Fold this protein.
Amino acid sequence: MSAPIVELRGVNLALGGRPVLEGITFAVAPGRFLGIVGPNGAGKTTLLKLVLGLKVPDSGSVRVFGMPPQKLGRGAHRIGYVPQRSEMDRRFPVTVRDVVMMGRVCCIGLLRFPRKSDWEKVDESIGLVGLSGSGERPFGELSGGEQQRVLLARAMCAETRLLLLDEPTMGLDRPAEEEFYRLLRRLREERGLTILAVSHDLLTLGGLADELICINRQMHIHGDSQQVLSSDQLREAYRCELDFLTR
Amino acid sequence: MMEMLSYGFMQRALAASLLAGTLCSCVAVLVVLKRIAFIGVGISHSAFAGVALGLLMGVDPLFSAAVFAVLVALLIGGITRHTVIGEDTAIGILFSSSMALGVVLLGFVSGNPGDLFGFLFGNILAVSWRDALWLALVSAAVLLFLFLFSKELVFICFDEEVARASGVPVGPLYFALLASVALTVVVSMRVVGVILVVALIVIPGAIGLEVSRTYRGMVLTSAGAGIGACVGGLVLSYEWNLPSGGTIVLLAALLFALASILSRRLLAARAPRP
């Protein structure tokens, strides 16, 4: 088996004296799609931040492409991150092309300006998510689904091999959500991406991911999606919420 | 107008208002986008203690204010980033205690403490060529910084966490931005004073945000508004014999009100009709 792209071993993290993650251990092989599910406040976003190197575990180890994420340096270009869209300011004066160009900021480097080849890459990414011709539209005037596709284009604009998504379909209506996931499936097939996606929407993510991890501070279960979805241990993680989620 | 420019003090005042208008309005874009207007209030008020310190020690108040304001800017940045003390609480404590320190220090200054009212509320007519030169040098340095790091600064303002995850040196650039705000405030205080200067590092940016839909558009609108308010305010204050600092800030506020009305009308015109 090839070396895992992401590997966490016995990770513990407390924030403000409160344990957020305890004993988290899993690995993701190249090309796999791992869904991370769990109820609100379970530590899912924190887990992504550990993989991104935005947080450092109190104990245990996090390896991305075989090394701690803080030491990736230029290797960080291989990671694309789509954060929760609710944190965006809709009035921010940027066009679609400006937002996607942010994905190339670190490839370009400090004290340098985007070149023609960078703009070509930006337009290619915009085309990849089906928004060709929308490059000059203000980001704030797009629909929620379109904004999410732009953020995906930004994450894909570097030499992306690993894609991290945090509640990617939150706030989207059903057709926009289905369209986003269709796009994700296509990108994965075309580019051989490794994907880690966090969601509280167990059923949708379960239908898309190869493997699921269910966490609620601790890891409750890790296995193939269908195996996890039919497991009794899910009930333990979600407690009373599960009946509602699987109805 | 031509008669006004025949006076040396008015030539210096015009040069200072052009420079301060350009510098403050470009800084204002990032102050508004990064939502650090209240940090700007804290930094600008702290400059008063720096002025008092300079008067007491017999050094150029502009120099002591610059050192003090940059230190306070970095302190505010450090507290808000690395402690659990809230940003508004930290600024509330720091800016009031800086003002208090200034008042206490002034008590020790023997004789005439100089143009204190001018430091507080601006006295553009008292600007010397030396002040204008400092304004020009700081403008060149700060505008160069904003230009060279524009793609990183916009990224940080739009989405700080993703910027950090992408390897952008968010911490150093944030502190450099705060230091730029501090230097801008200090060299502009001759124009509108430490109390009113915050208006110039906020209002032009707010006008830019009201009427622009692109970053470049926001920078240009903000610069136009900042220069217009500074030069227009200077001319009005000369013609009607009004305090220059107050007139400049009131004109900027009026421009914001107009931009705000215009922006809502444009939005209403663009909205689909039922």
User: Anything to note?
Assistant: Chain A is about 35% helix and 25% strand. Residues 174-191 of chain A form the longest helix (18 residues).
